[in-house]
From TrEMBL:
GO molecular function terms noted in the UniProt entry: glycerol-3-phosphate dehydrogenase (quinone) activity
Cofactor: FAD
Keywords: FAD, Flavoprotein, Oxidoreductase
GO terms, biological process: glycerol-3-phosphate metabolic process
Protein name per the record: FAD-dependent oxidoreductase
UniProt family annotation: Belongs to the FAD-dependent glycerol-3-phosphate dehydrogenase family.
Domain FAD dependent oxidoreductase residues, every copy: 16-349
Keyword Oxidoreductase carried by entry: yes
SUPFAM superfamilies: FAD/NAD(P)-binding domain
Name of one Pfam family that matches: DAO_C
Top-level taxon: Bacteria
Organism this protein belongs to: Dyadobacter flavalbus
Length: 543
């Protein structure tokens, strides 16, 4: 992907479909639409997946909590949501095997009655999971649980229930969708902000007026159809096209805290089924750390980046501590992140945690704008399919959706053992090789190739982590990295696992970007100063 080339095409060409928002749903729509033969543009006001789609719990799942609510309340809408999630789970796993993989989750229980309750519930969960090869749930003895998760408090532990879902690197999975769409013919660009719409004589939107945030230049993108996939920000785009529409989105903030891997000291994740506010909380190993989340609170200011407050951090630590032999202190926090859920609401009296993560495709008959509203990561492909099916109806086309079988960028000819070839061919250390294969899949050799002409690019960005300088250059050349945060937060995920080490790596990343992008000293220092100020605030707030 080349941003300058994309900008020229966006200014010059006319499109069948222009998609606003390059998170999971927008990227999914772009791939589906281009594979059906449409000429597609996709833009985002920030980086790809920079909002909700990079701030998830990193799970691919049907939703255990939804199943419990469905059974208790005989709620068939909740049941449908679980079914959709589990149907899509195996597709998400299969289509990008380098970025998504099975994850074993343990639920510790304190009595045999509690264990029986969860075992029955998870057996029901298993029955909805057709067409996949994940192992079924099972009840484990106290000894078996402690072998898998030795950090638990053996005094209160009775036994545990083990089940499987999937885990993904959400930001890179979204990027793979954008890359795949781009390679199939879509035109993609980040840092393009929507200013408004142009309309034809019938009042239908037929162009988007935008600004290139990097240059400040404004231009118009002409398109026969415009699809709004902006998640929590959907109402802003909907009302720009038609101010008479009612607001439909009730954003909810969810935060995660990140603690050292040793907190659980296990490759298994934990599901905590009982919390003080009735939610479930997950503690999940990710990138050498452990993520705990998530909260669910109403969010009134969607323009400010969602961050963690002291109460939320304490709540998550207090939720985990009763299960641990050695209690953790909030001062052990390595990082954290918050995100907004685009909850779809017709009833303002409901709490956000009771709202379904289901989706809806809205077509505004006055403006012609199509909006994909609501939804969740696991069902992104189904959401996109339903949206492009509506586009087919409007364009009077009969196309087939093929995304259920479409292997994403980096997943083609994927071989988990490729890391050994990298070790032999380029002389990387084992942890670097394994990291490159898990991030870039079959394209990991392209990172290695960059080091043949410049051996200095083999150097680590941090002694503690397997990330290397060549990845910065690759990100600029092929992944549309525009700012240091694009790389550190979303291409390698360091920001969400270790704030201090991100700050340590920032000057090196900025220097490499300056060399490649032609920044002068003033621009380089500006980039470092703005991002380091954010990181220092996070570190300071964490205490």
């Amino acid at each position: 992907m080349n941003r300058n080339t994309s900008l020229e095409k966006l200014k010059r060409e006319e499109f069948d479909i222009c998609i606003i928002g390059a998170g999971a749903s927008g990227a999914g729509c772009a791939l589906d639409a281009v594979l059906r033969g449409y000429k597609v543009a996709i833009i985002d006001r920030k980086d790809f997946a920079s909002e909700t789609s990079s701030r998830s719990t990193k799970l691919i799942h049907g939703g255990v909590r939804y199943l419990e609510q469905a059974v208790k309340k005989l709620d068939f809408a909740q049941l449908k949501q679980v079914k959709h999630g589990l149907e899509e789970r195996h597709i998400v796993l299969n289509n990008a095997p380098h970025l998504a993989r099975p994850l074993a989750l343990l639920t510790p229980v304190n009595s045999w009655i509690e264990g029986l309750y969860y075992k029955i519930g998870l057996q029901i969960y298993d029955t909805f999971a057709t067409k996949d090869s994940l192992p079924k749930s099972k009840w484990l003895s106290k000894k078996e649980v402690l072998e898998k998760m030795p950090s638990l408090d053996r005094k209160t532990l009775h036994s545990g229930v083990l089940y499987y879902d999937g885990q993904l690197d959400d930001a890179r999975y979204c990027l793979a969708l954008v890359q795949s769409a781009s390679e199939a013919g879509a035109v993609a660009a980040n840092y393009i902000e929507v200013n408004g719409f142009e309309k034809d004589e019938k009042g239908k939107v037929n162009a988007v007026t935008v600004s290139d945030i990097q240059s400040g230049n404004t231009f118009t993108i002409k398109s026969r159809m415009i699809i709004n996939c902006t998640g929590p920000f959907s109402d802003k785009i909907r009302l720009a096209a038609n101010p008479k529409l009612p607001e439909r989105i009730r954003p909810s903030k969810g935060v995660h805290v990140v603690l050292p891997y040793e907190t659980l000291n296990s490759e298994y994740a934990m599901l905590i089924p009982k919390t003080s506010d009735g939610r479930v909380v997950f503690a999940i190993p990710f990138e050498g750390a452990m993520i705990i989340g998530t909260t669910d609170t109403e969010c009134r200011d969607i323009n400010a980046e969602p961050t963690l407050n002291q109460k939320e951090k304490q709540y998550l630590v207090d939720t985990l501590n009763p299960y641990l032999a050695r209690k953790i202190d909030i001062s052990k926090l390595k990082a954290g992140f918050g995100g907004l859920r685009p909850l779809l609401s017709a009833d303002p009296s409901k709490s956000t945690k009771s709202l379904l993560r289901d989706h809806e495709i809205e077509m505004d008959r006055h403006s012609g704008l199509i909006s994909l509203l609501g939804g969740k990561w696991t069902t992104y492909r189904l959401m996109a399919k339903d949206t492009i099916d509506v586009a087919d109806e409007i364009f009077k086309k009969e196309n087939s959706c093929v995304t259920d079988q479409y292997v994403l960028a980096g997943g083609e000819n994927y071989n988990p053992g490729l890391w050994k070839q990298l070790q032999t061919e380029f002389g990387f250390e084992e942890d670097i090789c394994r990291h490159l294969v898990r991030k870039y899949g079959s394209r990991a050799t392209r990172i290695g190739a960059l080091t043949l002409n410049d051996p200095a690019l083999k150097q680590r960005l941090s002694a503690q982590y397997p990330y290397i300088k060549a990845e910065v250059m690759y990100g600029i050349q092929h992944e549309m990295v525009v700012t240091p945060r694009d790389f550190l937060a979303r291409r390698i995920r360091l920001e969400i696992t270790d704030w201090k080490e991100t700050l340590h790596c920032l000057p090196v990343v900025a220097e490499l970007m300056a060399q490649s992008l032609g920044w002068n000293e003033e621009e380089k220092q500006k980039q470092v100063a703005s991002y380091s100020a954010e990181l220092k605030k996070y570190i300071s707030d964490a205490g």
